[in-house]
Amino acid sequence: MVKCDFSSAGNVSVGSRIYLGSGDNFPQGCPFIKVSNEARKLRAGMKLVSEGCDLLRIISVSWADQVPGAKTWVAEVLDVLPDTGNLNLKIEKIGYSVAYVTLSDKGAAGQREDKGGPLIAEIISDSLPVSAVHGFLIPDEYGDLKSLLMHLAYTSRFDLIITTGGTGVGPRDISPEATLAVIEKRLPGFERAITATGLTKTPHSMISRGVAGTLGDSIIINVPGSPKAVKESLEAVIPALKHAIDKLQGDISDCANIA
């Protein structure tokens, strides 16, 4: 349970976003919800629930500025919030939180529509129970991707992070290098499955250098940039995704029945 003080929430409409944190984290006049220390358990995709009513969904997490050890959360308002007073809200999480990152210099400059990222959201949402999906569009910069992957895995704690683009051999293709710099356990089976599936469609698939691995409680997968390759790559690994995430996060059930 998380104790929430709504006295500073103001008149926030359903569908908008609001900050959660301590009263010292935000400028005067900024609407926010003050939360107890139990909020440290919150991660992207979790909901705060009161008597069966979903009030808030966690979108992202960040460190609070100039407040030692404190974090702030951004939450989506799902229902009308109480006017004032304190409530103990239950933490719930049903399904997996997913972040996709599109690597594209032209896309980040507004010169090209991002089609691969939204396709990732659609395919994963159709294949797995999903609690939240959030997308990011950044240029092909090693440092940008490396820092974003660490933030998504360690701070916001998304269950699944998928990058699209930047897997080839061009001078600006840096997705594999940035991913290798942060992952803790590599998943070569995922990589081989993606390559094998792609080779049934085109010999150019052997050029892709996509990496898959774990970082904290998150699984990170690189897929190529074209929508066709996104679809083929995800179809190759989706059958193992749920099991892989569950095992990574501590599922102790047997992997197979023993006769």
Would you mind describing this structure in some detail?
By secondary structure, this protein is of the alpha/beta class. The protein is built from 6 helices and 13 strands. It folds into 2 domains: 2-92, M1 Pyruvate Kinase, Domain 3; 96-248, Molybdenum Cofactor Biosythetic Enzyme, Chain A. Helix content is 27%, strand content 29%. The strands form 2 sheets. A 7-stranded mixed barrel has the order 1-3-2-6-5-4-7. Strands 9-8-10-13-12-11 form a 6-stranded mixed beta sheet, sandwiched between helices. The longest helix has 22 residues, at 227-248. The radius of gyration is 20 Å and the shape is globular. The termini are far apart. It catalyses: molybdopterin + ATP + H(+) = adenylyl-molybdopterin + diphosphate. Catalyzes the adenylation of molybdopterin as part of the biosynthesis of the molybdenum-cofactor.
What are the SSEs and their pairings?
Elements: E1 2-5, E2 17-21, E3 32-35, E4 47-50, E5 53-63, E6 71-77, E7 86-92, E8 96-103, H1 105-108, H2 116-127, E9 130-138, H3 142-155, E10 160-164, H4 175-180, E11 185-186, H5 188-199, E12 212-215, E13 218-223, H6 227-248
Entry keywords:
259 residues, alpha/beta, M1 Pyruvate Kinase, Domain 3, Molybdenum Cofactor Biosythetic Enzyme, Chain A, 7-stranded mixed barrel, 6-stranded mixed β-sheet, 6 helices, 29% strand
